[in-house]
Structure of Nuclear receptor subfamily 1 group I member 2:
Amino acid sequence: MWKVQETLVLEEEEEEEDASNSCGTGEDEDDGDPKICRACGDRATGYHFNAMTCEGCKGFFRRAVKRNLRLSCPFQNSCVINKSNRRHCQACRLKKCLDIGMRKELIMSDAAVEQRRALIKRKHKLTKLPPTPPGASLTPEQQHFLTQLVGAHTKTFDFNFTFSKNFRPIRRSSDPTQEPQATSSEAFLMLPHISDLVTYMIKGIISFAKMLPYFKSLDIEDQIALLKGSVAEVSVIRFNTVFNSDTNTWECGPFTYDTEDMFLAGFRQLFLEPLVRIHRMMRKLNLQSEEYAMMAALSIFASDRPGVCDWEKIQKLQEHIALTLKDFIDSQRPPSPQNRLLYPKIMECLTELRTVNDIHSKQLLEIWDIQPDATPLMREVFGSPE
């Protein structure tokens, strides 16, 4: 009786969700042909829990996992799942979701969902800034602010990675066909080198933040909270400038890294897949240096970081940066459908970076539990317990 009730509730909730969702919030990898849900074949709205799915399968998977349902197939566990019959067998539908790569661990808690909704609401508010009048240009104050911002970005980010000669040497697996065990030293061959690379990036981001207008006017506690919360996101933004979408590699001066190198530092597909996806998503925007710099500043001045006290002041600073970014795009880029969508797409990227940040934090702590080869600065910034 209980199983029947759960199935009916799942179906009722899915009907409500189908009626209220005419578009998705996931991120398509391309903007061309319509995407197909890999679970049921319906129109997909983006990547949800690590797989391209429709809103219906996204909601079904989330509810089934959060309720820890014990579903059973009345037939032979071989039901064909498609758009028309996907509600006929919940067990086979859940199995199909898992088979296409949907991950239970990506389902957020209710508190995390509320936090993400609040973040999206704030980002949505920033996308509703008033339109820039035709032919308008940046105000002198905005131009001065942008000059300072780009100057700080340029001075604190060595695009050639000349300091990399001082990193611990690269060590890659001698036998790439053998997947190392998670607890073996072979699983972390690249961790010392990657730790030095990330530490180098962190130092640059701290220097960047200190040079930002208004940052030093904040209390030291808020400065620390903003940096700790944003370092991973700003690192992705900076690494995006050297990301090659054709090869899915990062070309950092004398070294070129790929996801296999990250794997050999202990990271797994749960983090690497969304990481590559956000990099490809950002590279498609063809951002200019000014836009990269403002995107980094928007990430730093996020008032909802844990430990922030003067959130109202920080929120006003972020809104000022957002308005400058929008005015820059409207005044400096030629009118086109792509450029009209650039500002909201940047806001969308910043939201997606939060998800990548959360997964990164969890995986990093898991790595350190097994192999504590991290620099003191990394431990301080990412909050690893001693």
